[in-house]
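INSTRUCTION: Work out how this chain folds

Fields: amino acid sequence; protein backbone structure tokens

Chain under study, with its fold:
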Amino acid sequence: MSDTTSRSTGQAPTRMNLRPDLAALVEGIPYLDVRDPQAARATLKELEAQWEPADTSAITVAEQLIPGPEGAPDVVVRVYSPKAPGPHGGLLWIHGGGFVMGSLETEHNQCVWFASQAKCVVVSVQYRLAPEHPFPAGAEDCYAALRWLAAQAGELGVVPGRLGVAGCSAGGALAAAVALMARDRQGPELALQLLTFPVTDDRMDTPSARRFHDTPVWSTPQSEAMWRHYLGEGHEQRETSPYAAPNRAATLAELPPAHIVTAEYDPLRDEGIRYGQRLLEAGVPVTLHQWSGAFHIFDSFGTATGERSIAELVHAVREHLGD
């Protein structure tokens, strides 16, 4: 671990004992001001430009337009297919970005890694973003993409019984929501929900949410702005759908096995852990890795610690969706 690192936003700074390779990144991470979605989107694109593109030599990558939810626009997806003979498992990937930013480029590398290393067909979905398109637009786009993946399994070289859904941060909320929708709407059947640093609860009443006001990449003020954009002003006085905040679900029974990743210095840490605990209590198999000395989406930055995390995720996908 590194020496204690701190960041200040005017309040008492959070004291962090980060892993050395992650501590070296902190000062270079830009602040994503979610209060201004346009500015946040521009900053995210600048950050994405710093990431080294992953090797796509073992896969093919193609974009196409698929039917959206009833009465809504069509949806763009990007399909990552292994060149190795199939059929393969199929994974719906949902990018993060606080429901207000992000694109097919945001987690392109993760999709490449899963397709090339876990040998599965990955379908990444460009869902509609808030505040222009608040809940439930994005969630319904993602569910439409899952239905398309299941319906086109044969054409895509996917085994119908080996489907999973995955997402990072807000994408984790959407992935969990899609799993709930698939349960409640009688399909498609899922074999895995992979949730990394997931958003699961709009109440923000956990110790980590109360404490981490200035942590790298993501902090509680960003979560507060995110929920206002996604659910609308005054959402605290309205009932929240579990398809927006999965921890609001009355029961988590009969959901697919879950692999959940959380990080010590992340305001979303405790709600992700709480979701895993509730899944376990409902009889759902759960693997939970709580990374010490780490911050939100630390595995996006090309460090040794991040590579270890990615390797674990690839193994989880192989285990649940592989041959």
